[in-house]
Design goal:
The protein is of the alpha/beta class. Among the domains are: 220-452, Rossmann fold; 457-621, Glycogen Phosphorylase B (Rossmann fold), CATH 3.40.50. It has helices at residues 2-32, 44-51, 157-167, 184-197, 230-245, 259-264, 276-286, 297-316, 340-347, 378-404, 462-469, 487-501, 532-535, 548-556, 569-579, 594-604, 607-621, 625-636, 647-650, 656-668, and strands spanning 92-95, 115-119, 147-150, 168-170, 176-178, 214-218, 221-225, 249-255, 268-272, 330-333, 351-355, 370-371, 425-427, 444-446, 475-478, 505-508, 524-527, 541-544, 561-563. A seven-stranded parallel β-sheet has the order 9-8-7-10-11-13-14, with helices on both faces. It has a five-stranded parallel β-sheet with strand order 17-16-15-18-19, sandwiched between helices. Strands 4-5-12 form a three-stranded mixed β-sheet. Helix 14 links the parallel strand 18 (541-544) and strand 19. The longest helix is centred in the N-terminal third of the chain and has 31 residues, at 2-32. It is globular, with a radius of gyration of 27 Å. Residues 517-615 form the Erythromycin biosynthesis protein CIII-like C-terminal domain. Keywords: Transferase.
Length: 674
């Protein structure tokens, strides 16, 4: 009796302590994150008024008048006095909580086909050792995750933006320069946030991986959402085809320009909004995602709006040609498909990000769209670029959430604003070219290049076959989907550099119309749309814009490479190529000259450069990037893939026959014994 009494008192004490801990935490939340009531503070009604003008420039918080647009092109007043709150007491207050009311709801198993057995090479525990942080949460709001309280969070939105803008400068060409010396208090806050946050907590869709060598995966309807040029689409098409081999039904949704390309590979197609030619032109003019002049705002606005509005139909609408129903049970997307996470949240399905350039914060290298003088700012550059992009698209995203998805809007400053750090992410490049940074956690995979291998069935023109056979291996020069301001001038530079170095050359016209209205000598051949995996092994070296796919094809063929970057990750790949001794330093398109290109060609012809290229080619040929990508997708799927149930279905009890088929489906999805 006495023992039982002590146990009961101990239990009551534990319960009381737990209650007091929770109560104290709730008080701290209300102190630093007060309930959102009234207009302009994050409530649906207030946000409705705030977002109504739908600007996509870097708008001021709670101030969206058109006459404020010019403010985004100037640095805020340097005499602004920062609040002392950033310079007092401890930098970070940290608390964990777990709401027992937040738990996964039972989900109806609908649309499941029989299982496939997918190889899983590793068994990772994606939870914290302390399971306190690993609880169910919304993808967007991340309920129940570790809450980090920065003094920065207590400032007004306008004050926050002022401090952040002091960290960076938007150049005239649209790129972002990050300088840590400009704003030490806010810099230390962001950097200390990284030091305490550790491995990103697992999302509602990321759970403990099985240690078994085989993991049963249901056959899924997978929507692959890709925004970009053909080079961006191609690796996803390779991934889609391999997923089909595992029994999944895959719909690749991208721009209408690539309908024939996708369907010729035997993959279902659905059109996304946006025009890749317009997007490429915008990126080439602005060198990034930030409008460099007021005239570019309307271009950005139309393209982003069209992309976002097309995402939900791409995941839910029947096939446009045969009317076959489709509803995504999992989503794969690249980051420029803005809105992917919101559609996944609405449908309650897993989301896996794949990309050809780094988008996860790291100290190893800066964001591809940022210039960072200090290496300590590399990690921070990803956070700041994410914020700038979010400020530009938040109006469309929140309008999309409220009107189309019936979801609450997201605040101007939010722990979630489009970052992919909490999502499983696969990077489609060879780890032998850029290894996985040590500070990328278990949610991130570097899977290898994903080749489509179009050259196996390609039939070249007879005229080209005769030309290639009658001389030495040529140098390939082409800029793919990149637009050129003066194609005739660029063509003349190429021809003169080939003459100076005594080399034969292949000019790929691309979207820039190289070679048009220009007399082409006999030792130069003009080509249009030829598979790189067929052509590059016939070349002695390659010169191109530095797109990830073109770079991969050149390296696999063992070609020394010169990159002439136009924007974005092309500079990143140019630097990586040069660091590995596979080619000269990149030549930005604005600096392309006869002298610079001639010197680059001579550099590539050196025996030691060719030897380096041959070594890396052998390593890449032994990789199976597509297989690794499929393995990563399967490995990060939760044990029970959630399926969205419409409101009309939630209230309907399944009939007895439906219950039987549901039970059969569950039995089929148990781990296979062989």
């Amino acid at each position: 009796m006495e023992s039982n009494g002590r146990e009961k008192m101990s239990k009551n004490s534990e319960d009381r302590a737990s209650f007091e801990k929770t109560h104290r935490h709730e008080e701290s939340i209300h102190k630093y994150h007060p309930p959102q009531e009234g207009p302009n503070n994050g409530s649906p009604n207030g946000a409705e008024d705030e977002e109504s003008s739908m600007e996509v420039t870097i708008d001021e918080p709670n101030d969206r008048s058109p006459d404020k647009q010019s403010e985004v092109y100037s640095t805020p007043d340097a005499n602004y006095q920062r609040m002392n709150i950033l310079q007092s007491s401890s930098v970070i207050e940290r608390s964990r909580w777990k709401d027992p009311s937040v738990s996964p709801l039972p989900r109806a198993k609908r649309g499941l086909d029989h299982c496939i057995t997918a190889p899983v090479r590793t068994g990772r525990n994606l939870f914290f050792e302390n399971q306190e942080g690993a609880i169910s949460r919304s993808m967007t709001e991340k309920r129940g995750s570790t809450r980090i309280d920065l003094k920065f969070d207590r400032l007004s939105e306008r004050e926050k933006k002022k401090l952040i803008m002091d960290l960076l400068k938007i150049q005239n060409d649209g790129t972002v320069e990050v300088d840590l010396t400009n704003s030490e208090p806010v810099t230390s806050e962001f950097l200390e946030l990284h030091s305490v946050e550790g491995v990103p907590p697992s999302s509602d869709y990321i759970t403990r991986s099985t240690p078994d060598l085989n993991k049963s995966i249901p056959k899924l309807n997978v929507a692959v959402l890709v925004v970009g040029t053909r080079g961006d689409v191609q690796p996803f098409l390779a991934l889609a085809r391999r997923l089909q081999e595992y029994g999944h039904r895959v719909r690749l949704a991208t721009h209408a320009n690539f309908r024939g390309f996708v369907k010729s590979a035997g993959v279902d197609f659905y059109p996304l909004g946006g025009d890749p030619r317009v997007l490429a032109g915008y990126m080439a003019r602005n060198k990034g995602l930030i409008p460099s002049a007021p005239g570019e705002i309307s271009v950005q606005r139309k393209q982003i709006k069209a992309i976002i509005e097309s995402l939900l139909p791409a995941c839910t609408e029947p096939d446009a040609e045969n009317g076959e129903p489709f509803r995504a049970q999992a989503i794969i997307a690249n980051p420029p498909a803005y809105g992917h996470a919101h559609v996944a949240e609405y449908l309650d399905v897993p989301l896996h990000i794949f990309f050809t350039m780094p988008w996860t914060p790291t100290y190893a290298f800066p964001h591809p769209f940022a210039h960072v003088p200090q290496s300590a700012g590399y990690w921070l550059s990803y956070i700041l670029v994410d914020l700038l992009i979010w400020w530009g698209i938040r109006g469309y995203i929140n309008d999309f959430r409220k009107k189309k998805l019936k979801l609450p809007p997201i605040a101007y400053f939010s722990t979630y604003h489009g970052s992919i750090s909490h999502l499983p992410t696969g990077y489609m490049w060879s780890p032998h070219v850029v290894s996985k940074p040590e500070d990328w956690g278990p949610l991130v995979d570097v899977v290898g290049y994903c080749f489509l291998n179009l050259g196996s069935k390609y039939q070249p023109p007879e005229e080209f076959v005769r030309w290639i056979q009658k001389g030495s291996k040529p140098i390939y020069i082409g800029f793919g989907s990149m637009p050129l301001e003066d194609s005739k001038k660029t063509t003349n530079i190429i021809l003169e550099a080939l003459r100076n170095t005594g080399q034969r050359g292949i000019i790929d016209q691309g979207w820039g119309d190289l070679g048009n209205n220009t007399e082409i000598p006999d030792d130069v051949f003009l080509l249009v749309d030829i598979p790189h995996d067929w052509l590059f092994p016939l070349c002695t070296a390659v010169v191109h814009h530095g797109g990830a796919g073109t770079t991969a094809a050149g390296l696999k063929a063992g070609c020394p490479t010169t990159i002439v970057p136009f924007f974005g990750d092309q500079f990143f790949w140019g630097e990586r190529i040069h660091q590995r001794g596979l080619g000269p330093a990149p030549i930005p398109i604005s600096q392309l000259s006869v002298e610079a290109l001639s010197e680059a060609i001579r550099f590539m012809l050196q025996p030691e450069v060719k030897s380096q290229a041959t070594e890396i080619a052998a390593l890449i040929k032994n990789e199976d990037g597509v297989g690794s990508a499929v393995n990563a997708f399967h490995r990060h799927l939760p044990p029970e893939v959630p399926f969205h149930v419409s409101p009309s279905e939630k209230d309907d009890d399944p009939n007895p026959l439906q219950r039987i088929f549901t039970q059969i489906g569950r039995l089929c999805c148990l781990p296979c014994g062989s």
